[in-house]
Amino acid sequence: MFGGLGKLIANKLKLPPGSNQSSYTQLYVAFFLSGILHFSGDFVLEKRMVYRSFKFFLLQAVAITFEDLVIYIAKRLLRRGEVELKPGRVDESWAETAVRVMGYCWVTLWFCLTLPVWVDELNSIGVGSFDRGVVTQFLLDAWKRRI
C-alpha cells in the first residue's frame, strides 16, 4: 500500500534503484506509514496506547532487515560448501526445502513474539479478548522466567 511512496522517497534521495539503500528506505517508509496509520486508530480508541501499533510495525521492518542479514550470511557460508541457493526457483533440493522450512519457522516465531506487543494493550483496555495462543504464551512465559 505504501510501497509507492517509499519508492518516491528513495528516488527523491537519488538512491540507486535496486540497491540496498533504496530497498531498505522503501521498507522502512512503508512500515513507518503503516505504524502511523494504525497509531491514529489507537489514538481514537485509547490515548495511552498510541505507541503500541507504531512499535509493532517498526519491529516488522527490523525483523526483515535481520532476516536479510541472516540470509546473506547463510548464502556466503553455503557457497563455501559448494551449495548455491537460487532465490525464486524451486528445485526441491534439500537446501531449498530446509531454507523454506526455516523461513516458515522464523515468521511464526517472530509473530508469536511480537503480536503481544500489539494485542496485549487491546486486551488491557477491554477492546477485545484476544487469545495469545499456546505457542506465544509458552515462549513469553519461558522468556519471563529467564529475566
Description:
It is a single chain. With 147 residues, the protein is an all-alpha fold. Helices cover 76% and strands 0% of the residues. Helix 1 packs across helix 2 (20-45), helix 2 packs antiparallel against helix 3 and helix 3 runs antiparallel to helix 4 (94-124). The protein is flat, with a radius of gyration of 19 Å.
The helix fraction, in percent, is over 70%
Gap between N and C termini, in Å? 38 Å
pLDDT averaged over residues: 78
Radius of gyration: 19 Å
**Helical run tally:** 5
Category by helix and strand content: mainly alpha
Which spans of ≥5 residues are poorly predicted at pLDDT below 50? none
Number of domains: 1
Element pattern in H and E: HHHHH
Strand content: under 5%
- Give the strand tally: 0
The major β-sheet equals: none
Q: Which of globular, elongated, flat, extended, rod-shaped describes the shape?
A: flat
List the helices and strands and how they pair.
Layout: H1 3-12, H2 20-45, H3 50-80, H4 94-124, H5 134-146
Quick structural summary:
The protein is mainly α and about 150 residues long.
Keywords:
flat, mainly alpha, 5 helices, 76% helix, 147 residues, single chain
